[in-house]
């Protein structure tokens, strides 16, 4: 898929413009601040309980790296295991192919409704919109996703998609919209959590009992047995995975882990990192199909393995670490930029720090929004500190900024593509070229430093042209009356000249 929005999503303005609008919304800021601070504090306490957190983090990182290094082998092993257990595997190169496969599978059942487990991959490909266009209604069953769907809204957080809504807003959405989608909200519904949850439960229950087709993603896929794993905390996922006769799971290829021993690590780090729970409330696992006479679960199971830019991301030595992500959302909850701008400003189903490095890699940096995302960060490093698989998000952000400014070569769909440098960075490029020229010539550097010292009284307090806005909010450093090298030679009498000079120019 080329740059721009994921399928099913409108074109978005660049991050600075969207964030500028978002930060003026005081309700949004208050909702976000309250929610992110609550989750981050709880997470810090849950993580601090484990003496071996650092070892678990390192183990998670290594397992993911090893799997990604041999991804082809593990995916083939996974396919064999799923087929052996009675399932069918489909390979989708991009969003359009994945949507076509799922649509045809639903059509083949004769059904026009599906129930869905919360899934980032299906949001990424715009599956709901693609199904709707073919007359198939997809019902979200996760509470937060239900709120987003009823409110004709977009998710703004990986774990808590309706984090930007408060209880009063949710009550209003339920009262006004539930009736159009099925069972209406009870009369006199208030904004107490118990009543809201009860209204959602009653509304969803009739959908679960009627559904013949379920659609899910998966948090993990175990190659050795072909087992898929969904980690959730409401029980809706369990209903979708066990009640419908046909189950279709759309999963990114990076979600495979080799063995159950490997899974053990992530089942410890994910709950603590995401919801700050010691153990996840509902961890559903299924392997292939079930026998109608003896067990719950689907009679037909289809696994759609989604690429959609992932193998291109894998080809980038620095950027590929983003594929380690287990979508815990801890990086969102500590990010000062996310806390103020909110998730919608990122123009993607992947908001926050992980979105800022994942979306421009999956979609390319060709659009305004994707070229702006690597700049949606203060590079404070808080995201790296909390990441349970040690993704160095600041490193990837800087790497992607370089790509945006300089252009360069990347792989798209297995083909090398030359990227044009993004517009709007001409001054930065010219400044870097000039700096490169001067730093490579010690004589020119010395001359420039002396010139700068002698003319320092005439230096402007702000930069002209494109640098004006940047320097208006910053103090430019004062140029010393005498360059360091001259001072060194003068005070050391030139005694250490040779070594001093070489050392300075060597840096
Ligand atoms: S990048 Fe790390 S902290 Fe952020 S969602 Fe992914 S795993 Fe969690």
Automatic annotation (TrEMBL):
Q: Where is the Lactate utilization protein B C-terminal domain?
A: 400-490
- Record's keyword annotation contains Iron-sulfur: yes
Q: Known Pfam families for this protein? A: Fer4_8 (PF13183), LUD_dom (PF02589), LutB_C (PF11870)
Specify the 4Fe-4S ferredoxin-type domain's residue ranges: 322-391
Q: Which InterPro entries match?
A: 4Fe4S_Fe-S-bd, 4Fe4S_Fe_S_CS, FTHF_cligase-like_sf, Helical_ferredxn, LUD_dom, LutB/LldF, LutB_C, NagB/RpiA_transferase-like
Which stretches are tagged as biased composition: Basic and acidic residues?
Answer: 483-492
Entry keyword set: 4Fe-4S, Electron transport, Iron, Iron-sulfur, Metal-binding, Repeat, Transport
Q: Point out the coiled-coil segments of this chain.
A: none
Q: Does the keyword Nucleotide-binding apply?
A: no
Q: Where is the stretch described as Disordered?
A: 481-507
Superkingdom is: Bacteria
Q: Where is the LUD domain?
A: 75-306
Q: What is the protein name for this chain?
A: Iron-sulfur cluster-binding protein
